[in-house]
Predict the structure.
Amino acid sequence: TFKPLSTLPLGPIRKRLRMMRPREIRDDSPMRTHPHIAMMAEQPLPAPEPGADAPEWIHLLPTPADGLVKTADGRGPYRLERAALQAIIDRSFQRTPQIEIDVNHATYLAAKNGGRSDAVGWIVEMEVREGGIWGRVDWTPEGRRLVSERAYRGVSPVLMADRSRNVASIANASLVNRPNLLGMAWLNLEGAMPLR
């Protein structure tokens, strides 16, 4: 079973997180994963290209020099080896060819109560680049509006990790306004959050 680690109330999302178990990892597999809402919130969304209203590529996962992905709230750290980045990308797309971006983790929080969990964008591609894993986003009109008007300035990924806290995959991401993962690039801003 999964053991979600989050500052969010665990009871309401426990059932939803169990449903999100990657199909490629069986119960008898040595690498059983646990979803971690490691809210990379406010991963600085990069500045859009001139004339664009939202960035095409967003920062999804940083690669600190020490291999430890840290959070502002003290959870983790999560282990990340640079050699594993492509495998993380591959596993992320095994469940679905496109990964949703919602708002404030609605997929895990609002949907369970019948609330809306509309996608505001779809991650259609990931690449290993300087600074970690970046995702190319096909924004919906609403997503473009929210980003261009700066209603949300950060991105928070949901990470799947094994019992040793090795990052296994990225389940989805959300537009948010509260930073947590350190070392991310900002939406609409140049530069990155400091690694403390």
Helices lie at 10-19, 85-92, 106-109, 141-148. Residues 113 and 182 are 31 Å apart (CA to CA).
